[in-house]
Design a protein that fits this description.
Blueprint (H helix, E strand, L loop, with lengths): L7 H16 L19 H16 L19 H12 L7 H14 L2 H13 L4 E4 L15 E5 L2 E9 L9 E7 L9 E7 L6 E6 L8 E12 L3 E2 L5 H12 L16 H11 L1 E2 L2 E2 L4 H21 L5 H4 L4 H25 L17 H14 L4 H12 L7
Length: about 400
């Protein structure tokens, strides 16, 4: 948000946020932090990041626009300002990314008054971490192919099934869960639940080790897990509609109601610094015309995406036919990947050094970021599927056979 477009209250909040962040910088973490929240795997990392999110929430920088009845600040346009200031200050990311960017916005749209009061404050403060139960071994990008089944039993639902790629599932207290409640209808047979995870009988969480050695991903097994009907979000059979609200926020089409710090990595500046400290054949990479041109081209793309993000805040450009959010998801994930790939190319042979090797450039950030980037292009619907959707729904092309 441009400073010249701020009203008086927003300008005062912006100055408050800057002052608070300047005077309350978090202490150095006791352990190395991962690149993003979805790679948090140790208790030490979790505790440090939970404490930071709680402080930001208490200072009014998280949940700024959420109604006061549900633990928020009750303002308008403040959250975007807080996000920008946290990004500018280079603060740690907020750990409860799924709670803030998916669960809270969805509950605020589809939840009852009681559900909003129960779930929103804990998600904003970071006290209660959320995970997402959409993907299954046979239902990744084809989300409507859900096979996890919830059977009505009195005032409860009995859930059986298997979810996979569940980021933060090992620390989550709650899951936003899509389950099939009817086998007669593909889309209308889905229902959305707010499912207890931590210590809940019938729920087993197993870590999945990625090629980076991190275990932020998990698989979650449901074996006769009982979920109260009070945990159902919206009507039975409306799961697909509710999930679309979640995905709209996950893909960046709507302002995250919960808020959160932006990307603390400024890739172009980092790439320039890396090129100045990296050598090949006795010459600085910063003096290589090819590398210089690639950095400039990457800077242009980064700035283009930043400007394009502003269009996602214009309702007329977002509501129909969803071009901006669908396009944005593809663009940002591939931009992150190309930034990291360029870092690996600049570092050259040194990019093969492990992150704990003292000689690794930027503490091994670039190869780690590059390997992790593939998860981004798969999450929220693979980029290949997203391109099909863009072709069919936006461009009106025939469906692929």
């Amino acid at each position: 948000m441009s400073e010249k477009n701020l009203n008086q209250d927003q300008a005062e909040f912006q100055q408050y946020a800057r002052d608070w962040l300047a005077n309350n910088a978090p202490p150095p973490p006791p352990v190395r932090l991962p690149i993003t929240a979805i790679e948090v795997m140790s208790v030490e990392q979790r505790d440090y990041l939970q404490d930071w999110q709680r402080k930001c929430y208490e200072a009014g920088l998280v949940g700024s626009d959420v109604p006061t009845d549900y633990g928020g600040g009750g303002n308008t346009g403040f959250q975007r300002i807080a996000n920008q200031e946290m990004s500018r200050a280079g603060t740690p990311f907020l750990i409860n990314v799924i709670g803030l960017s998916m669960a809270v916005p969805t509950i605020l749209v589809h939840g009852t008054h009681e559900q909003k009061q129960k779930f929103v404050p804990g998600a904003l403060s970071g006290e209660e971490i959320w995970c997402q139960g959409f993907s299954e071994p046979g239902a990744g990008s084809d989300m409507a192919n859900q096979q996890t089944f919830a059977k009505k039993q009195g005032d409860d639902w009995v859930v059986n099934g298997h979810k996979v790629w569940t980021s933060l599932g090992h620390f989550a207290k709650w899951m936003i869960l899509i389950a099939r409640t009817s086998r007669e209808h593909k889309y209308d047979g889905l229902t959305y639940f707010l499912c207890p995870i931590e210590g809940h009988e019938g729920v087993t969480v197993r870590p999945l080790v990625k090629m980076t050695g991190e275990t932020g991903f998990n698989e979650v097994l449901f074996e006769d897990a009982v979920v109260s009907d009070t945990m159902r979000l919206d009507d039975v059979g409306k799961g697909w509609t509710v999930a679309m609200t979640t995905l709209t926020h996950e893909r960046g089409a709507a302002e995250g109601a919960g808020g959160g710090g932006g990307d603390t990595v400024h890739p172009i500046e980092q790439l320039i610094d890396l090129s100045r400290s990296s050598y090949r054949d006795g010459k600085r990479m910063a003096d290589d015309p090819v590398i210089r041109d690639r950095i400039v081209q990457q800077a242009i793309t980064n700035e283009g995406f930043r400007q394009s993000q502003k269009r996602a805040r214009v309702p007329a450009l977002v509501d129909h036919p969803m071009r901006i959010p669908l396009q944005g998801k593809v663009t940002i994930t591939e931009l992150i990947q190309s930034n990291a790939r360029l870092g690996v190319d600049i570092a050259g042979a040194a990019s093969t050094l492990y992150k704990l090797d003292e000689a690794a450039p930027d503490a091994g950030h670039w190869p780690l970021a590059y390997m992790n980037s593939y998860g981004n292009t798969i999450a929220a619907g693979t980029n290949e599927i997203q391109r099909n959707i863009l072709g069919e729904r936006v461009l009106g092309m025939a469906k692929s056979k």
